[in-house]
Specification:
Shape: globular
Distance between the termini: 29 Å
Oligomer: single chain
CATH superfamily: Haem-degrading domain
Largest sheet: 5 strands, mixed
Number of strands: 5
Length: about 140
């Protein structure tokens, strides 16, 4: 049973289609290009397998792994990676998140939801975490 303080349980759905993943990446790429931001954009499917990895020529190499980890974290934990960043910044009990393996605690990872189910996730890296999130959100506007 769900109480007012308990969020509803979101189920994993079928894997994101290549066509939708490509549209999301194109929209995210357009946002990054409009600002001149060299980004890495990763899409994972609902099984947490890499579907697309898009890297600008001038994107820093470290962003390849970070973008993938942001997408994986958003998918595995069914929430934006900003939730982890906020918990860490708040300190106190939020520091417990440091004990969880393979969690990327940087804003820029978002679940992709269709028909009430998570079908994948996007992770973006290359600029500040807020700019990464701006690009990820732009990508999701087409889903």
């Amino acid at each position: 049973m769900t109480t007012p303080s308990t969020p509803p349980i979101v189920k994993y759905g079928p894997p994101i289609s290549l066509e939708l993943a490509m549209r999301i990446v194109a929209a995210a790429e357009a946002e990054a290009a409009a600002h001149g931001w060299p980004m890495v954009i990763a899409i994972v499917d609902s099984g947490c397998r890499l579907k697309i990895l898009h890297r600008h020529d001038d994107a820093q190499l470290g962003s390849i792994d970070v973008a993938q980890r942001k997408a994986e974290t958003a998918l595995k934990f069914k929430r934006p990676t900003k939730a982890f960043e906020d918990a860490l910044i708040a300190g106190g009990p939020g520091f417990r998140m440091l004990s969880v393996t393979d969690v990327c605690m940087l804003e820029g990872g978002l679940p992709i939801v269709k028909d009430g189910a998570i079908i994948g996730a996007i992770g973006v890296s290359g600029m500040t975490s807020a700019q990464d999130a701006q690009v990820a959100v732009a990508g999701l506007r087409v889903s």
